[in-house]
Design goal:
heterodimer; A: alpha/beta; 5-stranded mixed beta sheet; two-stranded antiparallel ribbon; B: alpha+beta; 7 helices; 5 strands
């Protein structure tokens, strides 16, 4: 399975973010979105990764970017995890049918029943501008995401000039 | 486009370093004083320093993860304010050795214990004399691909292995061998 590459339209999806709320990718049209696929709540590497992105909210806000976490865990699991780690970024449940969104993005690992640790930076028009699949045990930092957001913001400035 | 895992800001006079500046190995840690994994890495680094002696220079940079650790920032400020009185490492060590007891009220007594001028210590923190250093550390960390705390760099390259003593020593020693091969 190959992750979707820059230049293509990001497939839309609708997933639950809480037991009574749903979120669609298209809700965020008009602003950049950072999709963070991660294997599972509670595992040490993922937790560090999400805590880091949570901490860098001011940096992402400069680009008006919305960061969204996605894993195959259910909403109740996400709720407990978010509360425990004091996360402010929404976590979406790619739970039923399991991993359907991860499959659409080419980042599902069928053997493990979890998604890859993958990042997609999507621009305001919904086009994927950067994607990255990290080696499983290694937590990607935020430098690649910020570089992609900077490049989007530069090209928007050019278009407006 | 690959993510860079190189240290973007070279070690310089602005940094807190232990060990000779011409040591063949430089280990940089981005750490948080309230992070338990950094607390676990603290004695590991001490052991590495003892084992490698003058071959190793150790540099600590601040990366407080304030959303998860409410006292991480005040601890970083305390260490930086101690640095303004030439006692960074004394405060650094106290903070990690007493990590589980860390809270705002206890910091002045620790400052007193290592002989700091308490008035200057308080003023430096209040007036933001230490803020810039912490901000710069954080920015250079983000740009260098810090991916959690602690994140280590060995001679400028991010170390993605386990932060235990044996793994870190092995990585440092193999870097040392590589250095020698380059030189000969």
């Amino acid at each position: 399975m190959k992750a979707l590459e820059p230049g293509v339209l990001a497939p839309d999806f609708t997933l639950s973010s809480t037991p009574d709320q749903k979120v669609s990718l298209s809700d965020f049209r008009g602003q950049p979105v950072v999709l963070v696929f991660y294997p599972a709540d509670w595992s040490p590497v993922c937790s560090d990764q999400l805590s880091l992105y949570n901490e860098l909210k001011p940096e992402f806000s400069e680009f008006k970017a919305q960061v969204i976490g996605i894993s195959v865990d259910g909403v109740w699991c996400h709720l407990a995890f978010s509360k425990d780690r004091k996360l402010q970024i929404p976590l979406l449940a790619d739970f039923e049918p399991k991993g359907a969104v991860a499959r659409k993005y080419g980042v599902y690992r069928g053997k493990d029943g979890e998604s890859e640790r993958a990042l997609f930076v999507i621009d305001a028009e919904g086009i994927i501008r950067w994607s990255y699949v990290s080696p499983v045990g290694i937590n990607p930092g935020a430098d690649g995401i910020l570089k992609a957001l900077e490049s989007i913001s530069r090209s928007e400035e050019r278009d407006n000039a | 486009m690959e993510e860079s895992t190189k240290l973007t800001q070279p070690v310089s006079a602005r940094d807190h370093a232990e060990g000779p500046s011409d040591a063949p190995l430089t280990l940089v840690e981005y750490g948080d004083y309230q992070c338990p994994y950094c607390g676990a890495a603290y004695p590991v680094v001490k052991r590495l320093q003892k084992k490698l002696g003058k071959k190793l220079r150790f540099v600590f940079r601040n990366f407080p993860v304030t959303q998860s650790h409410p006292y991480a920032l005040i601890a970083a400020e305390a260490a930086e304010a101690a640095a303004l009185q030439g006692k960074f490492w004394e405060m650094h060590d106290l903070l990690y050795e007493n990590q589980t007891r860390l809270e705002p009220d206890i910091i002045p007594s620790w400052a007193k214990r290592i002989g700091l001028d308490l008035e200057k210590f308080g003023t430096d923190i209040k007036q933001g004399a230490v803020e810039q250093q912490i901000k710069e550390d954080r920015q250079s960390g983000i740009r260098s691909g810090v991916n959690g705390t602690p994140t280590f760099y060995i001679n400028g390259t991010r170390y993605d292995g386990s932060p235990d003593y044996d793994s870190l020593l092995e990585a440092l020693e193999s870097e040392l061998v590589e250095q020698r091969t380059v030189l000969t």
